[in-house]
Amino acid sequence: xxxxxxxxxxxxxxxxxxxxxxxxxxxxxxxxxxxxxxxxxxxxxxxxxxxxxxxxxxxxxxxxxxxxxxxxxxxxxxxxxxxxxxxxxxxxxxxxxxxxxxxxxxxxxxxxxxxxxxxxxxxxxxxxxxxxxxxxxxxxxxxxxxxxxxxxxxxxxxxxxxxxxxxxxxxxxxxxxxxxxxx
Length: 183
Description:
The protein is of the alpha/beta class. 38% of the residues lie in helices and 15% in strands.
């Protein structure tokens, strides 16, 4: 099967990455646990809007925040196990070309066994049998455009249950779900 897997918030701990850099840059003391909504960058940090956030996150004097994100526990091991039986198709969205480059370098550095990498906001256009995402708007679009596919919501504080999705709380649960669908 083709497994369409998102990166940020699913494989890579984007929240920990941006919060750590924000604290270093601005002498703040935010915690990843403070992030409970999708747009938290403009709610708990000083950014006026997402454009300002992305400008900071991709400052040209250093790599973007996507270059050195920590992995979520169990993610790499689970994806390696799944790649023995299925095609791992990374389907992620990024704000600009520099973030695209840093994401591809990050994938290589961590040794993510991906047979394809697609960087697009229209994830539903990439044909997969099972999708795994955490973004509320992506879950909505995937269920709308791919109602005959299995769409999994990686449960995070910033998303809520969505009709037509299956909840996944950790990587072992996702592997089990894929095994059930495959049989």
